[in-house]
Amino acid sequence: MDDPIRLLLILIPALPLAAAVLIGLLGPRVLRQQSHWLAIAAVLASFLCSLLLMRELSFLQRAAGAGGEVALGIGYEEVRRLWTWTDVADAYQQPRTPPGESRESLVGGGSRDFRIDIVLRADSLTCMMLVMVTLIATLVAIYSAGYMHGDPGYWRFFAYFGLFVFSMTMLVSVSNFVLLYVFWEAVGLCSYLLIGFWYQKPAAAAAGKKAFLVNRVGDFGFALGVFLIWTTYGTLNFHDSLRGGELEPARIQQAVAAERAGEVVPAEQEPVAGVFGPLRLADNELRPAGQPRTSAMISLAICLLLLLGACGKSAQFPLHVWLPDAMEGPTPVSALIHAATMVTAGIYMIARCTPLFLVSPDAQLVVSVVGGFTALLAALIALTQYDLKRVLAYSTVSQLGYMFLALGVGSLAGVTAGMFHLFTHAFFKALLFLGAGSVMHAMGNVIDMRRFGGLRRVMPVTYITFAVGCLALAGVFPLAGFWSKDAVLGAVHDKVHELEPHDSDSHGPAPHGPAPHGPAPHDSSPHGSAEGGGTQAVERPESSADDDVTPVFGLSNLLRGQIFHWLYLLGLMTSFLTAFYTFRAFYLTFHGPELIPPEAGRHAHESPASMTVPLGILAVCSALVGLLLDRSYLDGTNSFANWLLWTPSLGFPAAMRTTLPGEFHLSVAGWSTLMALGGIGLSSYLYLGSRHEIHGIRQFFDLAWVSGWSDVESFARMRQWRVARWVRECSAAVGLEWLLRLVVGALLLVVLVLSAPLLLLYYVSPYKLSYHRFYLDELYELVLVRPLRGLARLCYGIDRWLIDGTVNFVGRVPRQIGDVMRSLQMGLVPFYALAMVLGLLILLAVQLLG
Amino acid sequence: MDTATLLLVTILLPLAGAVALWPVAALGTRAVRWTALAVTLATLLLTVLVIWDFYPDHVASTEREWTWLGAGEQIQFGIGLDGISVWLFALSALLMVTAVLVSWEAIDDQVPQFYALLLLLECGCLGVFAARDLIMFYVFFEFTLIPLYFLIGIWGSEDRKYAASKFFLFTLAGSLLTFLGLLSIVWWKAAYVAGGELTFSIAELAAAVQQAAGTPRAMSPGFQAVLFAALFAGFAIKVPLFPLHTWLPLAHVQAPTAGSVFLAGILLKLGSYGFVRFCLPLLPDATYLFAPWILWIAVIGILYGALIALAQHDLKRLIAYSSVSHLGYCLLGVFALNPLGLQGGTLQMVNHGLSTGGLFALVGMLYERYHTRDIQQLSGLARQVPRLAFFMLVFTLSSIGLPGLNGFVGEFLVLLAMFQRAWQEPLPGWGLHLKAISVLAVFGVVLGAWYMLWLVQRVFFGPLKHPSGGHDGAPPRDLAPREILALAPLAVVMVWIGVAPNFFLRPMDGPLREVEAAVARPLQEGLQNREPVAEKRPQTGLENLTRAR
Amino acid sequence: MNELALLQNYLLVGGLLFAIGLAGFLVRRNMIVMFLSAEIMLQGISVSLVAWGRYHNDWGGQMLVVFIIAVAACEAAIALALVLMLAKQTGRLDIVLWQDLREEGQPAYVDREVPEEREEDQVWPTLTPAGIEPEVDPEEELHRSRV
Lengths: 850, 549, 147
Prior knowledge:
Chain A has helices at residues 4-31, 35-67, 99-105, 124-147, 154-173, 177-195, 202-233, 249-260, 278-282, 296-313, 322-325, 331-340, 345-352, 354-358, 361-382, 388-409, 412-442, 460-474, 480-499, 526-533, 557-590, 609-629, 632-635, 639-644, 653-656, 666-688, 691-701, 704-710, 712-719, 722-734, 737-763, 766-771, 776-822, 829-849, and strands at residues 78-93, 111-122, 241-242, 271-272, 630-631, 637-638. By secondary structure, chain A is mainly alpha-helical. In chain A, helix 1 runs antiparallel to helix 5. Chain A starts with a helix and ends with a helix. The longest helix of chain B has 34 residues, at 427-460. Chains in contact: A-B, A-C.
C-alpha cells in the first residue's frame, strides 16, 4: 500500500470487526471454547497498528512542524475517505448572502449539501484514544479468556467484544458528527448486549435496558445538538473538504485561494469548511455558514445539548444511574467498557468539541459544575457500598466527573489534563476492575465485601496489583493517578487565578496564572514553531479570551472565579473521599481475618496466568505511565499534552491564548497528596483497627441516636418513673386527672412537632442517603417512569374508549338512521299510496309556491 | 425485453400465478405452496431485473402507456417506476416472499384460496407503485383492499369479521373522498389550463400545476384546501394518522401473519406514498398551508403511538401501535418540505416496511410455537429459540433506529430535516411550533427505544417461562431454515441500507427534487412574508473576536 | 264555445275522474274497488290527454289513449287474476290482510275495531229472472257435467 495511514486507519477497526463476524459465524459450531484466539489476535494486531499509526503521524507532524507549510498552530490531521454514506445535494438552501460575505463563508454559497462521507481521521487525539482503547482491549481480551472460561456463551462474548472494539475505534476515528453519533450508539448497543450478556438473570436484562434507555436520553440531547450544529454551521464534518468530496489539503488551499480571489469555481470545487477544520479554526471563524445566525444563546444551546449526550455516555449526574447497574455484566466488560473506554466517549466528544465550548463560557461552567458535583456525589455514594464492583463503578463516575471538571475549565491546560486523567484512569480503573473480577472469580461470583475478607494470602498477585491500582486511584506519588489528578486540580486552580481581578498587586503574581503568551516554553511544540515562524498572528488581546464572549447567564468573572474556587475545594474533598473509599474496599477485601464464602467451595485460589499477566501489565502501566509522560516537575514538559496539542481542535489560535499545559503545581500537588494520604490514613485507622469505631461512626451518620426519640417504648418507660407516678397519684387524689392528661398530651404534641424534622432526617440520614444512592433511582421511578406508564395507560384508555368509540359511533349513525327509516316500511298498500300522494302534494306545493 | 415490458410482466405475474393456483389446487396443498413460492420468487427476480435496468440512469423512469378506456386517449394504462416508487415496489416483491414463507405451516385451511389472495394482493401493490395514471392508481389502490379483506375475514383470529369490515369500511370511506379530490384536479386541468384536454396522467397534471402556478388560472387556495382535505381523508386513514388509526391495531391483531406483514409493510405506505405523489406536487399551496398542522398531528401520533405501545401486553398490538408511531416520522419528513425530509421520509417508508414487516413475521412464528401473544405469559425465550431471539433483536434495533441499520438513516434525515425546517421559520409563530415539534419528535425516539427494548427484555430475557400446554411438553424448536430464509433477506437489506444508504437515496433525488420544487414556491413566499423586518441579530463572541483581530 | 272553454270542460271532467279515483284508492280497502279506482284515475288522465291532443291538434294524445286503453285491458286481466288469487287464499278482499312485504320485526297492522257486519247490510245482488229455465234431460245433464 502506498498510503500507510489509510491502510492503518482501515485495519484498526476492520480487524476486530472481522474477528467479531468470524466468531459470530464460526463460534457456535467450530470455535466454541477457542473463540478467544481470534479476538485476542485481532485486537492485538489492532493495537500494533495503532502504535504504527502514532509513529507515522508523529513523523508527519514533525515534518510539518519543521517545514511550516501546513497551517501551523492549528494542528495536524490526516483524513481518508472510504465511501459516501449519504449525499443530498442542496439540502439546505438559504437566501444567498451578500456577495462580499459569501466569499468568506466557505460553504459553497447559500446552499449546503448534506454530504456524509465515511471519512477516517488520524490526529493526536484519535491516536491517543486508539492506542489506549486497543491496549486495554487486548489486555482485557487475554484476561477474559481466563475469566469467561467454560461459559456457555463463550463465543458470543468474544463476538460482542470484537464488535465493541470495532465500534469504539470507529467512534474515535470518524470525522463527522453523524458518524460520531452512529458509533456512539453502536458502542451503546455493545454495552447493552454485554451488560445483558447473562440474559437469564432478570437484573442483567433490566440493567442492559436501563443503560440503553438512559443513554438514549443522553443521545436525545446529542442528536439535538448535532441538528443545531447543522442548522448553524451548515456542515457536520470535522474536516475541510470540497463539495465534491475532495480531501487533499493542497487542493482545498487552492480552491480557497480561488474563492478568495473571487474566481468562479465549479460547484464541485467549492470549499466547505468543516466544524473543526483548519479553514474555520485558522480564521477563528467559528461562525455559521452564510448568514451570521448564531448567537450566544445558540452556542450555549449546542454545548449544553452535547453535554447532555456526554452525560449519558459518561454517566454524569442526572444520567449516571445506569453505570452502577451495568455492573451486572461480566467483569471484563465492566473493566473495558464501563471503566476504561466507552464511558470516556463523552469526555472524548467534549474534548473534540473544544472550539465549540470555547465560544460559550457559560457552557464550560456548566460542564465543570456538573463534573465537580458528580465527582462528589458519586464519591459520597461509594463510601457505603458493599458491592466491590459497585464501589468501583461509583468511583468511575466520580473520576469521570473529575475529567468533566477539567474539561470545563476550558483552557488547554484543562482539556489536556482531562484527557490525561482519562488516559491514566483507563489503566488503573481497568486494573481495579480486573482485580475485582479476579476476586469474584475466586469467590464463586460473590461480590459482597461483607462475605469475604483477608484474601491477601489466598491471592497474592491480585492483592499486590490491586494495591497498586488503589494507590494510583487515590493519587499517591508517583503513580499515574497522582500526575493526572494534579493536572486536573492545577488547571482548576489556574482558572481561579485567571478569573480573579488582576489589578491589585496584593495577590502578587499569581503563582500558576495563565501561561505567558508567545512561544511556549518548549521548542518542539507545534505552536511554538508556528509562532516562531510568524505564520500565525497569535497575540494576546487586552483581556482574556473569555471577556470577548457574550455571556448568557450574565455571571461576573468574580462570581465564576468563586464557583471555580469552590469546585477546586470540591475536587480536593473528593480526592480525600476517593482515597478513603478505595482503601476501605481494599481493606475489606484483602485484610482482616480470612473469610471465604461457601460459594467459592475449594476454588478459592489465585487466578490463572491468563488473568494475572494482564493484571501485572496494567499495574506496571498504572505505576509508570504518569511518571513517564508528565515531566512537568522537571522541565515543564508534559509529553502527553504536547502530543495532544497537535490535534486541530485543540491547537487553534483562540485555544492557544488560554492557559497552556506544562506547569507543575507544587502547592496543589501538596494539598492533593495530603488529602489522599489523609484518606488512606483514616481508612487504615478505621478498617484495620477494631470494628467498633467504624460501627460507631456509621451509627452516628445513620442518626441512630435520633431513633431514641422516636422510640414509643421510652414513653412507656417514662410512665414508670417515680416522679411520674407521684404526679399521677397526686392529680388523681385532687381529681384533676383530666388536666394532667391534657397537659401531658400537649407536651407530647409539642415534642413530636419539634422533633418531626429530626425524625424525618432519621429516615434520610446521611448514611442512608449514601447507601441508597441518594434515592435517585427511586426518584426517577417516581417522577418519570411511573407517570409515563400511567400516561401510557391513560392514552390507551382514551384510544379505546374515546377515539375508537367516536369511530364506532360514526359507524353507528347510518345504522341508526336506517333503523328509523325501517319503521316506515310497513307493508300496507294504502300507506304507500298515501305517502305517494303526500309526496306529490309536497312537490306540487314547492312548484307552485317556489 | 425492454424495461417497460419487463415491468408489465412483473406486475402481471402474480395475477397469472393466482389464476394458475386454480388447476394446481388439484395436486394438493404442497404443490400450491411451492407454486406460490415459485411465483413470488420469480416476481422478486423480475423486480431485481427491473431495478437492474433502472438503476444506472435512475433519473429516467421506465414507462409504457396505452389507451385503457375512455373516449380518445384519456385514461392510459401507464406504468413506470421512478425513484420514489422503486424501492417500495421492490419491497412489495420482497415482503411477499416472506409472507408466503411465514404462512407455510400456519395456514392449513383453504390453502389455495389463501395463496391466490396473497398473490392478488401482491399484484395490486405492485400496480399501485407502478401506476403513472390517476385512474390506474386508484383502481389498484382500491384493489388492494379486497384481497386483504378476505385474508383478514377468513383466516384471521377470533374477532376477524369485525376487524375486516372495520378495516374495509374505514379505508374505503376515505379513499372515495380521495377519488373525488383527484377527479377534481383532473377537471380543473381540463377546464382551466391551456390546451385543456382531459388527462389522467399524473406527470402531466403535475406539470400543469407547475405551469399554472402564480397565474390567474392556478387553483385558488380555497379550492386547493378543499381538495387537500379530500385527499387527506383517504391517505391519512391509510397511513394511519393519529385520530384515524383505530382500525390498524384491530386489523393487525386479527389478521393472519402474512396479512399483518403485508399490511404493515406495504399497505400503510400507500397513504404516505399518496401524500408524496399527489398532495405535494398537485396541491402545493394547500400543502404549505396545512403542513404545520399535519406536522403536529404526526408528532402527536409519534408520541401517542409510542405511549400506547408502552401499555400493551399483546405483542401484535404493541407492534401495531409502534407502526402508528413510526409512520409519524414518514409524514414528518414528507411535510418538512425540504429535500432532506422528503428523502428521509421516503426512505423511512421502506425502513418501516422492513422492520415492522419482519417483526410481525417473528410474532407470527412465536405464536406458532407458544400459542399466545401475551407478553406476560412469555419470558426468557432466548434460551429456547436463540435464532428467533437474534432476529427479533436485529429487527427491534432497526425499528428503534440504531445506527448501522436502516431505521437510523431515515429517522436521522427526517429529524434533521424537521430541525432545519424549524430553523427556517422566524421565531414567533410557527417557528416556535416547529421547534417544539422537532424536539418532541426526537423525544419520541427515546420512547420508541423504551417500549421495544422492554418488549425484548420481557419476552426473551430473564428466567424461562412459557405457557403450559404449549407443545405437549417438548420444547419448541428454533427457527427452521425456511423461516430463516424468510427473515434473512430483510436483515441483509436492513444492514445494506444502514451502511450504504446512498445507494437507495440517489435514485430518489431527482423525482423528489421535482416534488420539492413544487412546494418550494409557496414555502419561499411564506417565509418571506413572515420574516420580521430588519431584525438585528446578536453576534457571537468569536465573530467579535474575528473582528477584534 | 271556444276551444279553450271546451278544453277546460274536458279537463274538469278528467280532473274530477282522477280525484274520484284517487279518493277511492285511498279510502277503500277492497281490492277490487281499489283496482276500479285506479282505473278511474287512468281514465281521468286519458280524458285530459285526449282533450289536450285535440286542443293542440295533435293526434299523439289520442294515440296515447288508445295505448292506455290497450295496456289497461291487459293490466286489468292480470290484476283481476291476482285479486282472485289473493281472495281465494283468505276468502276476503281486504288489502290490509296482505302486509307480508313489511320490514322484518315491524309489527303487523291489525284493525283495532272491525265494524260489525249487520244482517241488513248483507244485501247480495240478485239477478233478475230472464226467461224460463230450459228443460234438461237428466241423462244429458249427467253427460254434460264433464264439459
